[in-house]
Write a structure and sequence with these properties.
The protein contains 7 helices and 11 strands. The protein is α/β, with parallel strands linked by helices.
Length: about 210
């Protein structure tokens, strides 16, 4: 079903997230398949609905940097600077995961990718739910991501609780993904180049950017 992006609809969607259901919601890039990122069973449902290999990590979306504290054991200085500059926005930061993050999220890598989306509806949903929400794209694995609520509703139908009927952002590029490697002299490694260029990253943290 389609869910209103206004307060009552957001409250309904957030309640369903808290109950372990799945919600499709718009982000600054594409629609995301949302589940409570701290509920292992709910995240496992995301894999099943998408047909995705459960051995791959799932990014988590947060409403602000303070929510990162419950997800990561450390936020290195250079990554904190990048977050301050590019959040909300298309930058995913990979950090050492805290014990509260389920292994189905980290795929037993010991790390978790986090970002604040630049989309008001997405941020309100996370705030209302009071928990980080999975940010994997709302599509079957191997298919193109979707930017339109009606298409998501038609495709997934009763396999998810509902779809928040609001537009995505204009970006067609995925988020840039970075991590920090203290062993190599404190380098910021670009794991995936997306909407934010390496040049833009270097403007904030200098030549420690690899990639």
């Amino acid at each position: 079903m389609l869910i209103s992006p206004h307060a009552p609809g957001i409250a309904d969607a957030a309640n369903s997230i808290q109950n372990g259901d799945l919600i499709a919601f718009p982000t600054d890039t594409f629609f995301a398949m949302g589940a409570d990122g701290l509920n292992a069973d709910a995240v496992d449902s995301v894999f099943k609905v998408k047909g995705r290999n459960s051995g791959t990590p799932v990014p988590l979306l947060v409403n602000d940097a303070s929510m990162v504290e419950q997800l990561a054991t450390d936020l290195p200085g250079p990554l904190a600077k990048l977050a301050e500059e590019f959040w909300p926005g298309a930058l995913t930061i990979v950090l050492p995961a805290s014990p509260t993050v389920p292994k189905v999220v980290t795929a037993r890598t010991g790390t978790v990718g986090v970002r604040v989306p630049d989309n008001e509806v997405a941020v309100k949903l996370i705030e209302e739910a009071g928990t980080p929400i999975t940010g994997t794209s709302c599509n079957l694995t191997g298919r193109d991501p979707i930017k339109d609520a009606g298409s998501v509703e038609q495709f997934f139908n009763d396999r998810i609780y509902g779809v928040i009927d609001a537009p995505c952002g204009d970006s067609t590029a995925p988020s840039t993904v970075v991590s920090y490697d203290p062993a190599s002299g404190g380098a910021v490694n670009v794991l995936r180049l997306g909407a934010i260029s390496s040049k833009s990253l270097r403007k904030i943290v200098g030549d420690i950017v690899n990639g």
